[in-house]
Amino acid sequence: MFSGQAGFLADSPLSALRLARQGWLLQARMHYDSLNFAWQRWVLNYHDQQQHLLQDWLGELTPLKMALALLFPGVLILGWLSWRLLYSGSKMDLLHRRLQRLFKRIAKRGFQRQPEETLSGFVGRIAQTDPVLAEQLRPVAEAYEALRYQSVDAVTAKRQVLRQLDLAERCLK
After folding, report:
1. Residue 150 CA from chain centroid, whole number
2. Considering the domain boundaries, does residue 85 fall inside one?
3. Which pTM value belongs to this model?
4. Do the Cβ atoms of 106 and 91 come closer than 8 Å?
5. In Å, how far from its chain's centre is CA 40?
6. How many CA atoms lie within 13 A of 63 on its CB side?
7. Neighbour tally for 105: CB within 10 Å
8. Which of 24, 102, 109, 118 ranks highest by number of CB atoms within 10 Å?
């Protein structure tokens, strides 16, 4: 099945011998071999000069330095995570703050929004007992849901919600 000749399949398009003679491929392989050789020489041929260089940079290895080297990255990661949790989670955007303020005013009238309840559902529940209040809140709910669930311009939709919130807050005073 296989020929005993050395050049068997040498003229095949996928032959390793044929690919090895390509100019750009040969250059890429030579660069890779050069980098690989330099890395292996650096790592495997480690000698006193390199060891002294590292000792000059780091000093003598002590248990304290080993503990610091192990703890420092963990402290950095925990610090970053705690900063993210403390400072980014506490900031609400203007729209959310205004909605919370409106919900507090509505709660003073005896209506508490449930956590799983949409704004439209909340207004619908209010409409069962206080239709006048529900009519004041319906434009807020419609504008808010248009902002959150429809593909509209976010900036103008947010302005519309804030405008409706202003009107509803004035009516609730």
Report:
1. 24
2. no
3. 0.47
4. no
5. 37
6. 0
7. 13
8. 102
